[in-house]
Amino acid sequence: MPRTAALLLLLSTLACHHTPDRSQRPHGQDRLTQLMEGPLDVEAIRAVIHENREEIHRCHLWVWGTRPLRYGKITVHFVIAAEGYVSEAKVQETTMHEPELEDCIVGQVRTWRFPKPSKKLGKLVVSYPFIFKQSS
Predict the structure, then answer these.
(1) Which pLDDT score is estimated for 24?
(2) What angle (nearest 5°) sits at the alpha carbon of residue 120, between those of residues 117 and 123?
(3) Which sign does the torsion angle of CA 127, 47, 18, 80 carry?
(4) What's the CA angle centered on 100, arms 124 and 45, to 5 degrees?
(5) Closest CA to 108 of 5, 24, 7
(6) How far apart, in whole angstroms, are the C-alpha atoms of residue 18 and residue 31?
(7) What pLDDT does 67 receive?
(8) What separation in angstroms does the CA of 31 have from each of 36, 55, 108, 118, 134?
């Protein structure tokens, strides 16, 4: 019987920070308040990741077809530019040590488009863990 894999996206652990446009930075507001004011908030980021989770799952299955499937976590660090596209993406941390899988995931993340962050925010930096575990 073939093993099945499940991709568990931990939406509650999404970590974001931003690089504000300092010339337009409002005084007296904390980072979270600024983040929530713009059209791109944590929920919007989660929604785009959720919409694209099947691409990540396909990466995992593609690597599985070439060798025994491994399970673990790959955290991707990516930057959402002011225009809403991903300007940078790289593996921040991995427990899987599968370069083909990591490259596939990073390649997919680079194609994602997000709503534009508010001009006050500038670009957003996101760290997102993709967790792969065996289905029970």
Answers:
(1) 41
(2) 45
(3) positive
(4) 25
(5) 7
(6) 8
(7) 72
(8) 9, 31, 28, 13, 37
* pTM, 2 dp: 0.71
Could you give the maximum distance between any two Cα atoms of the chain, in Å? 61
For residue range 21-46, what is the model confidence (pLDDT) as tens digits? 444 433 333 343 344 444 578 888 99
Ranges of H-type helices in 4-123: 31-37, 42-51, 53-64, 99-111
Q: Which residue has the tokens 């990591």?
A: 102
pLDDT tens for each residue of 76-116: 999 999 999 999 999 999 999 999 999 999 999 999 999 98
Length of the chain: 136
Q: Cα angle at 130 between 125 and 66, to 5 degrees?
A: 125
How far is Cα 39 from Cα 48, in angstroms, rounded to an integer?
A: 13
